[in-house]
Amino acid sequence: MYRRGFLGRLAATAAAGVAGLTPLRLEAQPRRPPVSGADPSFETWLNRINGKHKMLFDAPEPNSGMPVVWPRVWLNGNNENYATKDADNSAVIVLRHAAIPLAMQDALWAKYKLGEVFNIKAGDAPATSNIYAKALPLPLPGTGTEALLASGAQIGCCNVALTVYSGMVAQKMGMDAAAVKAEWVAGLIPGVQVVPSGVLAVARAQEKGCAYCFAG
Fold it and tell me: Quick one: how far is CA 149 from the chain centroid?
């Protein structure tokens, strides 16, 4: 239900903006100096992408936790084959669209029933906590959102997806959309960076030299 409504909500927002526009003659408009709208924290985050090897993991879906597994596989491959350490390499994970709950703390999962919202299950029932935050039950130490952040990996969470999904959940629960979004942002796992949009972060990370891996 929520995921089907994602594009519809974006379209409605865009339509509302277009409806408010008034045709203007271009020649009548005064010239304006260019304005830099770059988020300093986002730019700082991007500038940390300076490892010997760089890989972007693009995750629009939870994909059974693979967005927080494959970066560990890639880091291990570099370390074992090229004598590097985790800190020598830049693993960049962008969580966008329906993958954003991988970046959220357990309290949000419980309060907002994120397992139901995003159709993420623990066994046969919707997950009530972030089952991808800790190490996954694999013979591969160091998986999971928290361990990857601790290793130096960079994780970005899409602001557009946070806005749209929190708004949908707020509407269903009869809550204030702005307040719910603020709580979602505050409840991200420490170290996760809110990026202006997931697609922008994917593009900018590649401009910083990252190879691309589709992780979702």
Answer: 13
